[in-house]
Design a protein that fits this description.
globular, 17% helix, Porin, twelve-stranded antiparallel sheet, 37% strand, alpha+beta
């Protein structure tokens, strides 16, 4: 079910996201296709990783026929991005075959790459099919509070900062803003959707799913150790991100993000995620490794 009659604020947050994803094709040409884009303002001053994921993917999709859709991408976060500046995205048309295409996209600021990814695209093709089922007995999103309504004890303005996101995020477990008495386990579930309807462009929904895939996935690592976002001295940075698109989905309808962490060691943690429609269709699988440094008392 899509958001019904979103308020003006919700519509504005989604419109701002669409503006960020509306890349400009430049007249400059080397051996690559060149695009430019803007950035969301961020309290930290750093570009949100999901933004540059979505932008580099859309740039690559712009060099392909509409019916050749992304099925996998692997990317590396190379440098922190400056959210006060725009980006330049270069797309290398590595290969075009009868059924598959490969593209490399790199996002630049100040002449140096901040993110580099390679993605593969395929024409629709029938074949064998199976999927791991969605977990049972997960509370409905309507029975849960939005994250911005669960910020008691956090600095003033936190609720507004969360509600300014284009996405409505609802944790099944307690959000990790503050210390929790919940059991330390390396897994969690999160409902998510955009706050207002998006245009009916499948490429836009695939890119917006990449945008959402970077939200909260790190928390399965933190939850395993009782670590929370407001912990003094905590340092977290995404190192790489991989994603596989399995089936079409709309990101303005509720999606369940099932997350778990199989390993943490050496200042790094690995998180895996599966994204389902409300009807239980597996639409994407995600993997991300992060750098994580905690105060000695928490390690």
């Amino acid at each position: 079910m899509r958001p019904t009659e979103p308020d003006d604020h919700a519509v504005r947050t989604v419109r701002q996201l669409l503006d960020v994803l509306d890349l400009d094709a430049t007249q400059a040409r080397t051996t690559e296709d060149i695009f430019t884009g803007s950035s969301h303002p961020m309290p930290s001053g750093r570009i949100y990783g999901g933004q540059v994921l979505a932008q580099t993917l859309l740039a690559a999709e712009r060099t392909l026929p509409e019916d050749r859709a992304v099925h996998s991408m692997h990317g590396y976060f190379l440098r922190p991005g400056d959210a006060t500046q725009g980006l330049t995205i270069a797309v290398d048309r590595i290969h075009d075959g009868r059924s598959f295409s490969t593209r490399r996209s790199q996002a630049y600021q100040n002449g140096v790459p901040i993110f580099s990814m390679i993605a593969s695209f395929q024409d629709a093709d029938p074949g064998l099919e199976h999927a791991v089922p969605m977990p049972e007995d997960v509370p409905s999103p309507e029975s849960l509070l939005s994250d911005e309504d669960r910020v008691d004890g956090l600095p003033p303005g936190t609720s507004r900062m969360l509600s300014d996101r284009a996405a409505d995020i609802r944790h099944v477990e307690a959000p990790l803003f503050l210390p929790s008495d919940e059991k330390r386990v390396p897994h969690q579930c999160v409902w998510m959707r955009m706050r207002a309807p998006l245009p009916d462009d499948p490429r836009l929904h695939r890119a917006a799913l990449a945008y959402l895939s970077d939200m909260t996935i790190q928390e399965s690592i933190l939850r395993a150790h009782g670590v929370y976002w407001a912990l003094p001295g905590l340092k977290v940075a995404s190192l790489d991100h991989a994603m596989w698109w399995h089936r079409p989905a709309r990101v303005d309808e509720w999606l369940l993000y099932v997350q778990e962490s199989p390993n943490a060691r050496g200042g790094r943690g690995l998180a895996n995620g599966r994204i389902y429609t409300r009807d239980g269709e597996l639409v994407a699988t995600v993997a991300q490794e992060i750098m994580i440094r905690v105060p000695d008392a928490q390690s």
